[in-house]
Design a protein that fits this description.
Layout (H helix, E strand, L loop, with lengths): L2 E5 L8 H12 L5 E5 L2 H5 L8 E4 L6 H4 L5 E5 L5 H10 L2 E4 L19 E6 L8 H4 L10 E3 L6 H10 L3 E2 L4 H7 E6 L2 H9 L3 E6 L8 H6 L4 E3 L3 H10 L12 H11 L3
Length: 265
């Protein structure tokens, strides 16, 4: 019996789920898990995130081509319809679905590191429509460091590097999170990792993203900006020293303990 973890990634949805999957797999310890990715590119570098076994399978319906009846599956995706989910529950001896609003953060972000970067901007790993470029005026007068994303096109990256005086390459993401004081981002996972690192995140709510994290961010007093509202951003930055960010308990154990219980570990 094998254990698989399927995560939905890609140039249309980014790497938030993948970063969470890497944190969960790491927190589960010595369990032999094969990560199944809907994107071959991220599967090829998953080992850089501490994942020993990873396979790109293109689409969710290919999972049975890798697994066998009676195997175990952790499933992090919104792709499956109710009928497909029921079939999975029958096919696998244990089937665990990760809710999109689940909070799981790698231990490495819970640090008290000196913030050497005043402000960084991370739109997200996915920008197929080049919305970052379309809304560059949103950042006028701020001069933040730019965090480049994973699925950006080569010519697009070249343009952005010319536009921003300072930037982080994709591989420097962890360094960016840990060293940045104010992080402006449209990535919910980056918001949580920034907060864990004692940063001060500002969340840009993208129209193509779900509302799953809205209530949580409001509870944590994380400022939310809609439709690249420049006036709203200016107001937040002017009063950010008075923003009462709330810290939150380390919640990864909640998810991993549920998984361990269901796997009888």
């Amino acid at each position: 019996m094998q254990t698989f973890y399927y995560v939905h990634t890609g140039h249309r949805i980014g790497l938030d789920r993948f970063r969470r999957a890497a944190a969960i797999i790491k927190s589960l310890g010595d369990i032999d898990i094969t990560l199944l990715c809907s994107d071959f590119r991220i599967a090829q570098i998953a080992n850089e995130y501490g994942i020993k076994n990873s396979v790109g399978i293109d689409v969710v319906r290919n999972i049975p081509q890798i697994s066998h009846h009676g195997d175990r599956l952790i499933f992090d995706s919104d792709e499956a319809n109710p009928i497909m989910l029921e079939d999975m529950k029958k096919y696998f001896s244990t089937f665990i679905q990760i809710d999109n609003s689940e909070i799981v953060i790698d231990d490495k972000y819970f640090v008290n590191e000196k913030k050497s970067i005043d402000m960084s901007y991370f739109f997200g790993d996915d920008d197929y429509e080049k919305d970052l470029e379309k809304n560059l005026s949103f950042l006028d007068g701020l001069n933040p460091y730019l965090q480049l994303g994973f699925y950006y096109f080569l010519d697009y990256e070249d343009m952005l590097k010319e536009r921003f005086e300072n930037y982080f390459e994709f591989e420097e993401y962890e360094q960016m999170i840990r060293s940045t004081d104010i992080l402006i981002t449209a990535s919910p996972q980056a918001v949580l990792e920034s907060l864990a690192s004692n940063g001060r995140p500002i969340y840009i709510k993208r129209e193509d993203y779900s509302d799953d994290f809205d209530h949580l961010f409001m509870d944590l007093n994380i400022p939310i900006i809609e439709k690249f509202d420049k006036l709203r951003l200016t107001s937040i930055l002017e009063t950010i020293d008075n923003q009462n960010y709330k810290s939150f308990a380390y919640l990864s154990n909640k998810t991993t303990e549920i998984i361990k219980e269901k796997f009888n570990l």
